[in-house]
Specification:
By secondary structure, this protein is mainly alpha-helical. The protein is built from 5 helices and no strands. The chain is flat.
């Protein structure tokens, strides 16, 4: 840097001019921020301590443990068919048997169906028993 450049910059700064890189971002000065007060159309900032809105109790479905067990049966049944190699695994795009996993899925279905027994009507019991028998027969055929 030449000494003449420094002297010229000092002279400009004394006159109130400051050389500034236009690419650099800067925060507004105190005077500028006081002049820039938000208009009536600006929304006030929400206080940080306010919790997010929650759903009303009427909007939340009432799901008991037996409803959750019924939903899980379908997931385990699907996994059993996939791991027996009788359905395409959506992640792999092909059917690959993994019989130890299929056994775990079938045993889990049997356990969940057993837990559901007191809360099932006759039609549901019959459907679940047939489904479980089909899973077990197909598993035995694959082993």
């Amino acid at each position: 840097m030449l000494s003449g450049d420094k002297d010229e910059r000092d002279d400009l700064e004394e006159e109130g001019y400051v050389k500034q890189d236009a690419r650099a971002s800067r925060a507004p000065s105190a005077e500028e921020s006081e002049r820039e007060t938000p208009g009536p159309e600006a929304e006030p900032a929400a206080p940080e301590s306010e919790p997010p809105p929650t759903q009303a109790a009427d909007d939340v479905p009432d799901i008991d443990v037996y409803s959750l067990l019924r939903m899980s049966v379908g997931m385990y049944v699907e996994q059993a068919w996939i791991h027996m190699g009788l359905r395409v695994d959506p992640r792999k795009g092909k059917a690959e048997p993994n019989l130890p996993y299929a056994k775990v899925a079938i045993d889990t279905v049997a356990f969940v169906v057993e837990q559901l027994q007191p809360n099932l009507d006759e039609n549901e019991k019959r459907e679940l028993d047939i489904m479980l028998a089909n899973l077990r027969m197909n598993y035995v055929q694959r082993t």
